Amino acid sequence: MCGSEKKIYIVGMGPGREDMMTGQALAVLDRADLIVGYTAYIRLLGDRFAGKETFSTPMRQEQDRCRYCFAQAREGRRVALICSGDAGVYGLASLMLEIGEDYPDVELEIVPGITAAVSGAALLGAPINHDFCVISLSDQLTDAAVIERRLRAAAEGDFVIVLYNPQSRTRRGYLKKACQIIEQTAGPDRACGWTRCIGREGTQTGTCTLRELQDVPADMFTTVFIGNASTFIAGGRLVTRRGYHV
Amino acid sequence: MCGSEKKIYIVGMGPGREDMMTGQALAVLDRADLIVGYTAYIRLLGDRFAGKETFSTPMRQEQDRCRYCFAQAREGRRVALICSGDAGVYGLASLMLEIGEDYPDVELEIVPGITAAVSGAALLGAPINHDFCVISLSDQLTDAAVIERRLRAAAEGDFVIVLYNPQSRTRRGYLKKACQIIEQTAGPDRACGWTRCIGREGTQTGTCTLRELQDVPADMFTTVFIGNASTFIAGGRLVTRRGYHV
């Protein structure tokens, strides 16, 4: 980053532990004048960025946060916008690229990070070791009918299904409803698992059947895994066979 | 890793550039006595691991490679098995867990890495910024009929679709056939993109329509992205809207 170029780095910080970030992401944050993103995320990284100037906005003010990045970059500041997991998986990368059309003088670089489908899978075993779908159950930006259609299609295609944002305090019963839709195709005994607070204090994981998954107390920090017909649970781990004859 | 425990680390090395690995993955490889995996991958990382003992087997001898890891771990060696991208996404994590049932005294830990869906997306823009599917077109371990069924389901669900292993020297015409299946639902003008040799020398990217994608000269180093109905190309970048009203 030299002084004359106007550039924003959009950085995936992974689950929140410094050693689960890439060297590239750490180097960008080390060099940044300003880190934009939830202060809770920066706090997760501990002392390394404790002295950095940060800026945040409340939830649902994502567009303000993005435009602030562009305004600061135009003033010559080295800006890094951070997202948990990967910025291009339900993060702010696409919104930044959309808004960026108003700021053609500002370059955007996306620095990938470990998304919860991958970090959660590693904790559980190997549930996404074959074709898989990632679906968010949040209907804040997506019609509920679209989500339902995708759940049905994913089950019909015998995909492993990873659910992000399964439910929240204001969205109760969403996971149960999703499970019931998938159960129509997959049956009640399908092997499933879930992870909570990956890479953070109080990490939890569990395996269960699809029927049992309905009643797991999931929240916005939970990532849910629903196996395909070749997924099994062994020794507390959730594993999807790739097709080798062992 | 202390001397008495028997443990194998199954490590995702990301696309192949050292600064795209996590600190956790680098630390595991630094401490390993033996790195098992294609020597080409280790070579990609340059001098850092140049002095390490390595072991590999030819393609299609994955089970031998896995059992070698267990045998070495039983002899008290610190073993790291590396896979490109993430070990749990079309990598050896699930096979290791399956074979591991024969070696209950050996612990397995999976260290996540950046998979091509995520690293390729970052290069292209933000194509997987909403619900997406990952499908491998390789029919070496999967029936062609299963792959076809998944392609149809993914298109019917209006998922963004990421294709791994689109074709190889021995599997020609696979990408064209997949595009034709998806086109029945998505139409010929759907926004698409592809990346080749992510994070390595000679990285290439491109955007195109679904009809044009049929004739992209894809190989095993290519990752293909097929947009959903909300995906667009702007300024050479492939972006899937998340639903904000910009």
Count of separate DSSP helical elements of chain A: 8
Tell me the fraction of residues in β-strands of chain A, as a range: 15-25%
Q: What shape does the CA trace of chain A take? A: elongated
Overall pLDDT level of chain A: 94
Percent of residues of chain A in helical segments? 25-40%
Count of distinct strands of chain A = 13
Q: What is the succession of H and E elements of chain A? A: EHEHEHEHEHEEHEHEEHEEE
| CA radius of gyration of chain A | 19 Å
Biggest beta sheet summary of chain A: 5 strands, parallel
- The largest sheet of chain A has its strands arranged as 3-2-4-1-5
| Spans where pLDDT lies below 50 across 5 or more residues of chain A | none
* Quaternary structure annotation: homodimer
Category from helices, strands and their pairing of chain A: alpha/beta
Distance between the termini of chain A: 51 Å
